[in-house]
Design a protein that fits this description.
Blueprint lengths: L8 E5 L3 H12 L3 E5 L14 E3 H6 L9 E5 L1 E5 L6 E4 L5 E4 L1 H14 L3 E3 L4 E6 L5 E5 L4 E4 L1 E4 L7 H4 L11 E9 L8 E4 L9 E8 L2 E7 L5 H12 L4 E10 L9 E2 L2 E3 L15 H20 L2 H34 L3 H13 L1 H7 L6 H8 L2 H19 L1
Parallel strand pairs: 1-2, 1-12, 2-8, 5-14, 12-19
Antiparallel strand pairs: 3-7, 4-7, 5-6, 9-10, 10-11, 13-16, 13-17, 14-15, 15-16, 18-19
Bound molecules: flavin-adenine dinucleotide (FAD).
The site of flavin-adenine dinucleotide has 38 residues, from helix 1, strand 3, strand 13, strand 17 and helix 6.
């Protein structure tokens, strides 16, 4: 294919949640959009657990549809390293478990219906800038696409921001994650279960997410240890009679967003910019919402003269940080403190949580955890734990 010199065109790389939202929003705002996806099928393979808040989905303007929604969730059960589990049940459903493959396919289909040109089997290998100030991407063993603007939504590990003169997230901080789809499991309820402790998932946590009456997605990510062994041990302990129907691996991002998400005629969104909650590695809502902002910005910028475009691009960076920045900063601090905690300190922390449960139930928000983190850090019980936390963190650095 000959490179096109259509400088009003926008290229979006990656048909994940961030890319499809960016592409559709840019098309809705009048831009000609090309969406490039490396895999033959959108959404395959999927690495994700698919827990999203209902409020977050509403923020993306997406109704939970039966085509991708598997089950609604009404809270979480926390298993401390030792002792009784702690249940945080909400009055109303707060989250929905989605099938990520079907969700991504649903979003991409909407984007195509909105006028986006989707090309699969297009692995982008290089970003280029040309003397006429257009930009382009080279596809491995394929064509070159030229455009006025590009949005990188190609997920964790992307090197395109670097090629566009930006820093990349600290990819060395990716946590290896492993997940099983379990069948033949005992009757499942409407709660997500989270497991903590050095024998379960050192430095992070393990999870069990009901996907059906007798099926669940069980996984973990961990800073240390053999994730397969840790996961097998967990399954043996809690669901010894279950059957592993599928295995998925993926890397959980905990490094915090990059400092700048734009350069000349280039934007970066989603995991590629590490727009994720460091406490959980969740990035569907933040990535999707930032994708909408990026798509809208790119559609306006591409219509403007070159010398004025930076104002739009800078506004994208400001807007997404205004929405999520302070929460992400607090989640980042919480993650760093949490990652080094000994089992003993974790047990004490959960005892504190037990004491303030009604308040947590009232204030907690899955997507904006900063408020509850700040509130809890002011409580006497947690302030009293800070010296232990400091000692644990120092030990963790030197261990
Ligand atoms: C084990 C695990 C569990 C998780 N669970 C949750 C959860 O429960 N809730 C939650 O909110 N988040 C969760 N996350 C995080 C979530 O999956 C990501 O934050 C989210 O998928 C980010 O969306 P994205 O569109 O930025 O990237 P992705 O979803 O990774 O999409 C990137 C797309 O770009 C394509 N691509 C990549 N490189 C290229 C290239 N060079 N050229 C063309 N196309 C390319 C990929 O094929 C993919 O389709 C989890 C992550 C992991 C690893």
């Amino acid at each position: 294919m000959e490179p096109s010199s259509d400088e009003k065109r926008i290229i979006v790389v990656g048909a994940g949640v961030a890319g499809s939202h960016a592409a559709l929003e840019a098309a809705r705002n009048g831009a000609k959009v090309v969406l490039l996806e490396e895999h033959p099928q959108v959404g395959v393979p999927s690495h994700c657990s698919g827990v999203v808040s209902l409020n977050g989905l509403a923020m993306l303007g997406v109704e939970p549809q039966s085509v991708f929604a598997q089950r609604t969730i009404q809270g979480a059960v926390f298993h401390p390293p030792k002792g009784e589990p702690l249940e945080l049940r909400t009055k109303q459903p707060v989250a929905v478990i989605i099938n990520r493959t079907r969700f991504d396919q649903y979003l991409a289909k909407n984007a195509v219906a909105g006028g986006v040109e989707l090309h699969t089997k297009m692995r982008v290998s290089r970003f280029e800038r040309y003397p006429d100030r257009t930009v382009g991407v080279s596809v491995q063993d394929g064509p070159t696409f030229k455009a006025g603007m590009m949005i990188d939504a190609s997920g964790a590990g992307s090197r395109l921001p670097e090629q566009a003169g930006l820093s990349t997230p600290d990819w060395s901080q990716l946590l290896p994650g492993l997940q099983y789809e379990l069948g033949d499991i005992q009757k499942q309820g409407d709660m997500v279960e989270l497991f903590f402790g050095s024998h379960r998932a050192p430095g992070f946590f393990a999870w069990s997410i009901p996907t059906g009456d007798h099926s669940a997605r069980v996984g973990l990510a961990s800073r240390k240890g053999n994730v397969k062994k840790l996961l097998d041990d967990l399954v043996k302990e809690f669901w010894p009679k279950s059957a592993v129907e599928a295995t998925k691996s993926g890397s959980v991002l905990v490094s915090g967003p990059i400092d700048k998400c734009w350069s000349e005629n280039f934007l970066v969104v989603g995991d590629a910019a590490s727009q994720v909650k460091q406490t959980t590695g969740g990035g569907i809502i933040i990535g999707g919402y930032s994708g909408i902002l990026a798509g809208r910005t790119a559609a306006s910028a591409v219509k403007a003269p070159q010398e004025e475009r930076w104002r739009f691009l800078m506004a994208y960076d400001r807007e997404w940080r205004e929405k999520f920045g302070s929460d992400l900063r607090r989640m980042g601090i919480a993650h760093k403190l949490f990652a080094g905690l000994s089992d003993e300190t974790l047990n004490r922390l959960f005892e504190g949580v037990r004491e303030y449960l009604p308040e947590i139930q009232e204030v907690a928000d899955m997507d904006f955890q900063g408020k509850i983190i700040s509130r809890m850090l002011r409580k006497k019980k947690f302030v009293g734990l800070l010296p232990r936390v400091a000692v644990d963190s120092i030990r963790a650095i030197f261990s």
